[in-house]
Amino acid sequence: MKQKASLPEILLIVGLILMAGLSRLITNEMQLWNFNAIGASALFGGVAISNKRLAYILPLATLFLTDVCFELFTNIQGFYGAQMVVVYGAFLLITWIGTRIRKVNPLTIFAASVGTGVLFFLISNAGTWALGNMYPHTFSGLLSCYAAAIPFFRNDLFGSFFLNTVMGNVFYSAVLFGAFALVKRLAFRGQQQLA
Prior knowledge:
The chain is an all-alpha fold. The protein has helices at residues 7-29, 38-48, 52-73, 83-100, 106-131, 139-149, 161-187, 189-194.
């Protein structure tokens, strides 16, 4: 997937990532807070977009635009303080991980989506601990922060951290990578045969 993409392929990638952002708006309005496609779109962008600058900008811009929409058009808080820097940084790291993937197949994408889902949980909650005043800034305070974060998932779609954050990332990665491969195979096959 790292080869230079044609304009139609770039537009397809941009469209898929923007649809991932739209899905975040929809799932959060449905109060499915952690079952969204932003982590998957960061991973997908890192893998699918050969232009490194665009690979980092597009998922972050999607995250930013959805945060603006939350802030302006819903009662969901889009921007909530210094922890946002950590959240955005975690998505940059996920994109970077995507840029490091050389062998793109279902197994590597599955492993990367599970790993980045867990990584996001660890980083975002470490940010809450480090930048907030809710927990002492000790190792036991960090562990308390992680332990306190788990019950937040109880009221989500599947009622658990694993099924919401990790499997949401896996689900949306499968959708993004699968849709990209399918559309590319069907729509761009004719163009390649003409070349």
